[in-house]
Structure formats: C-alpha cells, structure tokens
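Retry 2 of 3 after timeout on previous attempt. Resubmitting structure tokens to design endpoint.
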C-alpha cells in the first residue's frame, strides 16, 4: 500500500528531523545553525511528510532552494534512506520545478559532490545534466563537484515519462 505524501513548506520545528536525515545521508553535514541560517536568508524550504503511527506527520525528505534569478538553485536536498526509491525524491523535484516556473526562473541547478554517485544518478534521471566541474569545491575534502542543470519544463517532462 502506498502511503499518502504531503509536500509543503518546511518549518523550523523540523530541523531536528532534517538533521537526522542529513546525518544518515551525508558525510559532511549541515549543523543546526546552517538550517537556521537557510530559513533566515529566505531560502525556500520544502518538506515531504508521511502520516505516522500516532497521527503525527513524519519528515521523510527536505529541500532548501535559493532563487537567484533567472536560476533556482537546490542548495540542500535529502530523502530519508528508508524511504528512497519510492517516488518521494521525484515528487520533491516536481514541486521544486513548479516553484521555479511560478517564480519565472528558467533554470534549476544543483551542485553535487563527484563521489555522491547516488545523487548524480538521481538528478540525471530527473533530467539534469552535468555541465561544469568545480575543482576542489569543498574545504573539508579535496573533492570536485558537478554543477548539474536543466530547464524546469525538461524536469517535469522527465518525471512524467517515468
């Protein structure tokens, strides 16, 4: 049985659960203050919830995006590992693409660590393509990053074809 999915704005009350997902998903993680700064800086914060056992909603994915016209940049994106490959990531990307279109942004971009093969594969399946390599992008590791991008319409087409 497919559980209902609720996608809506994320609140600061969700930071502890987002940090849990963050720690399960990444070696280098955002700290509590990084999430607070993202809220304070006006980033678009999107969350996906599923109904929990006691009628409370359980956070299973989140995204922080920044509008830098004409681009819509995904700054942080994660799906709880226990809920991956269930369509939640695609539903979140659909929401992001629709927000980008609403805000008249003509490109969605995301920067992905070169060793994060799961994310590279996911974003490629959503229609984003690597166009530039950022050498030694991260202070904590000598790792490169790929800048992936696509038109919001292309992303929506790719999701519909899945």
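Retry 2 succeeded. Sequence:
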């Amino acid at each position: 049985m497919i559980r209902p999915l609720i996608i809506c704005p994320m609140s600061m009350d969700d930071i502890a659960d987002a940090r849990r997902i963050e720690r399960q998903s990444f070696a280098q993680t955002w700290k509590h203050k990084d999430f607070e700064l993202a809220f304070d800086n006006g980033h678009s914060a999107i969350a996906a919830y599923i109904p929990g056992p006691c009628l409370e909603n359980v956070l299973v994915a989140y995204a922080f995006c920044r509008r830098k016209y004409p681009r819509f940049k995904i700054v942080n994106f994660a799906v709880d590992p226990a809920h991956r490959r269930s369509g939640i990531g695609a539903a979140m990307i659909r929401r992001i693409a629709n927000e980008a279109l609403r805000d008249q942004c003509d490109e969605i971009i995301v920067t992905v660590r070169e060793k994060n093969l799961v994310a590279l594969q996911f974003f490629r399946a959503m229609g984003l393509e690597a166009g530039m390599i950022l050498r030694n992008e991260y202070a904590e590791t000598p790792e490169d990053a790929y800048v992936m991008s696509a038109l919001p319409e292309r992303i929506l087409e790719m999701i519909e074809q899945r």
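Attempt log closed. The beta strands are 6-9, 44-51, 57-68, 71-79, 107-113, 129-134, 145-150.
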